[in-house]
């Protein structure tokens, strides 16, 4: 089945967005085909870890109750990505809580406490199966220039000063119809001038 064509009228340019705080587990060399296998267990591990850390009450710590995936780099030709799965926080994580989380997770997991910089972002809400996300991302990033009247272009590699992420407001374990799955896509923008 072919991926749907995105509706450019639904692409939003968000200007001067505030910085966001994120904690997660990073995998710097993940096959694109294995994102699903990494995502579920990693979210579960983070939830379990936070429940063990005194002072890290999820309802007081988490800015959103659902998971986030951050893409630091995607190499489509090689089918690998540098990805972190985790959660947005209401405020920057204290050094004390960060140390406790790292101790529980151990060295086999790369725990990150990351600040997403304040900048301009493109946003698109996709509703449909996860299997089309790669194509949807391609269309979204490609169409930002025309939607912004050639003011902005997407930058999604951290080394280029950009970052992209996905938010998953509904849970595929609870929403059985894959055509109703919601994915919020965000990518950093740079000016074309």
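-> sequence recovered:
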């Amino acid at each position: 089945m072919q991926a749907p064509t995105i509706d450019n009228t639904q692409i939003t340019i968000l200007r001067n967005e505030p910085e966001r705080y994120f904690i997660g587990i990073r995998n710097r060399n993940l096959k694109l085909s294995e994102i699903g296998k990494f995502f579920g267990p990693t979210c579960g591990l983070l939830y379990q870890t936070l429940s063990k850390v005194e002072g890290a009450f999820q309802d007081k710590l988490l800015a959103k109750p659902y998971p986030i995936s951050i893409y630091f780099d995607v190499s489509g030709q090689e089918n690998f990505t540098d990805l972190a799965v985790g959660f947005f926080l209401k405020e920057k994580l204290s050094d004390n809580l960060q140390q406790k989380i790292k101790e529980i997770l151990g060295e086999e997991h790369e725990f990150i406490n990351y600040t997403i910089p304040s900048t301009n972002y493109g946003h698109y809400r996709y509703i449909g199966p996860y299997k089309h996300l790669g194509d949807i991302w391609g269309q979204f990033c490609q169409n930002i220039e025309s939607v912004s009247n050639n003011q902005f272009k997407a930058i999604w590699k951290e080394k280029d000063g950009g970052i992209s992420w996905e938010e998953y407001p509904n849970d595929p374990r609870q929403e059985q119809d894959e055509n109703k799955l919601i994915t919020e896509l965000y990518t950093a923008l740079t000016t074309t001038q």
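The CA atoms of residues 155 and 162 lie 5 Å apart.
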